[in-house]
Design brief:
Strand content: 5-15%
Oligomer: single chain
Strand order of the largest sheet: 1-8-5-4-2-3
Bound molecules: NADP nicotinamide-adenine-dinucleotide phosphate, fe (iii) ion
Largest sheet: 6 strands, parallel
Order of helices and strands: EHHEHHEHEHEEEEHHHHHHHHHHH
Number of strands: 8
Length: 357
């Protein structure tokens, strides 16, 4: 058994401002990587700018990261960062800017290499990286993964490099500007990370400390989330659950629901959390180690799989996916050993299609 979790995490009110000194130790000029709008609205960008100003560190801002960021965007941001001689990276936002920031930190360290190395298994260094999450789903601040859109292959794929941020700074105030849908989708993504980590080939007694605790925490806000009656405490709990779920998949990886989700996002534009969530109840139903599946349900406070499925359907709403897309999706998974290796049992095409809602 092995555990590896090198990211230093701080979580408190005004976290970014309070840890300005630690940010300041990471370099002399920062490249801030974020999306187009949200970091300005929720105050996270202003906090990072104030922290850097306080430390006398200059910075440039690349604020064009799109949802499900592409390799092309990463390369454009890399060139921008290099042109301004930045020597460390600060990602602010949901999983999209955080994942992009990881890939940018890697590519900036190797100005002579092109984007092909993102998908080659060669060990490469990366620039120091700080992550400030503003959604409560991906846990990217504590995972080594970066998922990028590959337009050439009409899908999304995790890059081959494991990039843990040096520093993750958590503050639940940034979540307050998320829409109801944004909250729901990202909370369901965190739930999927916990379930897929617990029910996984790589799951063991040691790394289940993360998934077990995370599932218990998710249970505590699940009714408030459904009823749209979240409290101040719930926001902190959702942020911490997402971070712990990141630690869980950092050890085990995800499994079939994440694998099945990518074509729904690429072909239909379904947000990541919803695209994963529609396969989640089916995954717990399918999982052949029934004792482990029962543990998950019990930790979440559901009496059976049907109750979990009903809950998810009510939370996420309907989604119609064509038989043809599901068929192609399942076939693609079956042909890819990488996608199957985290599911410890044999699986058929019909079973994969049946994971859907
Ligand atoms: P996201 O794609 O980063 O952001 C979705 C939308 O939410 C954007 O429009 C963004 O606006 C907005 N937004 C972000 N924070 C906000 C806030 N506090 N208030 C209001 N709006 C806000 O969403 P995400 O679900 O967090 O990330 C999904 C990505 O992460 C996918 O690419 C997925 O594959 C990846 N992922 C990564 C991991 C991992 O381990 N690294 C795990 C799971 C998923 P702006 O564009 O204006 O910022
Ligand atoms: Fe995810």
């Amino acid at each position: 058994m092995k555990l590896y979790m090198p990211t230093i995490v701080y979580s408190e009110s005004d976290c970014v401002r309070k840890h300005a000194q630690e940010i300041g130790k990471l370099g002399t000029k920062a490249l801030i990587v974020t999306g187009r709008h949200s970091a300005r609205k929720n105050g996270s960008l202003l906090d990072v700018q104030a922290a850097l100003d306080e430390q006398g560190i200059s910075y440039v801002i690349y604020d064009k990261i799109e949802e499900n960021p592409s390799v092309e965007t990463v390369m454009e941001a890399r060139d921008f960062g290099l042109a301004h001689a930045a020597d460390f990276v600060i990602g602010i936002g949901g999983g999209s800017p955080l994942d992009a920031a990881k890939a940018i930190a890697l590519m900036m360290k190797h100005p002579d290499l092109d984007e092909r190395v993102l998908y080659q298994p060669i060990p490469l260094q990366y620039l120091p990286l700080v992550c400030v999450p503003t959604t409560c789903g991906t846990g990217s601040e504590t995972t080594p993964y970066a998922i990028l859109t590959l337009h050439s292959q009409r899908t999304k794929q995790s890059i081959r490099h494991r990039i843990f941020p040096q520093l993750a700074l958590l503050d639940a105030k940034y979540l307050r500007s998320l829409s109801r849908q944004g909250l729901v989708h990202t909370c369901v993504d965190a739930l999927a990370h916990l379930v897929e980590s617990y029910l996984n080939t790589n799951s063991n007694e040691l790394n289940r400390i993360y998934s077990t605790q995370g599932l218990r925490m998710w249970a505590q806000f699940k009714e408030h989330l459904k009823e749209d009656a979240l409290t101040q405490e719930d926001y902190w709990q959702m942020l911490h659950t997402s971070m712990i779920a990141g630690m869980a998949i950092a050890q085990t990886g995800t499994s079939l629901p994440h694998g099945m989700s990518y074509p729904l996002t690429y072909e239909m534009g379904v947000p990541h959390g919803k695209a994963v969530g529609v396969f989640l109840g089916g995954y717990v139903s399918l999982y052949r180690d029934r004792e482990a599946a029962a543990d998950v349900l019990q930790l979440l406070g559901f009496t059976d799989c049907e109750e979990l499925c009903r809950y998810l359907k009510e939370l996420l709403g309907e989604l119609s996916v064509s038989e043809e897309l599901l068929q192609q999706d399942a076939q693609r998974i079956l042909q890819n050993p990488e996608k199957l290796k985290n599911y410890p049992f044999a699986v058929t095409l019909e079973e994969l299609k049946d994971l859907f809602f």
